[in-house]
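Would you kindly consider the sequence and fold I have copied below?
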Amino acid sequence: MGRGEWGWRLLAVGWPATIREVVVEDVKTISAPAAAGLGQPSYVWRFGLERRLDLIRRYVPLEGRHILDIGCGIGTFVQRLREFSPHVYGVDVDQERVRRGATALPHLVVAVSEQLPFADGTFDVVLLHEVLEHVRNDRVTLGEAGRVTRPGGRIVIYCPNRLYPFETHGIFLG
């Protein structure tokens, strides 16, 4: 596998240098207290989204590509990705979120990640942005992501770092 090429072999041979570089660069972000001090705590999430989009664009061509966002919610990332391609689709298990997003964005579909409603090799880019930790079966989800990705396509996965001392993703109070 050459520099800049990554995918399924990542599981078999470890983390290629390209992935390590992306991970290292991703942790160099604005601090949460500084962002929250701007008066809008959701700025932290939006800043992270923009930062990740910049990283994706550095390593994955998006212009004119067929893109799938698995776990799209109301379609925030779908909307941003449509600035680069009109062929962006989103799926989410939450019917209400898809309904809300679909009022402004076409091609949002209610579906579980373990059974995607698309033909084999439909997409050039498949994105799982902080969704893999929420699915019932991560192996089946990854298999489906691979199935709908064209040969030579890219699967981009972001997951929370559970070792980060301020990680609250998945902590439930009650």
The chain has two domains: 9-59, 62-160. Residues 106 and 173 are 35 Å apart (CA to CA). The helical segments are 9-13, 17-26, 32-36, 42-59, 76-81, 95-102, 138-148.
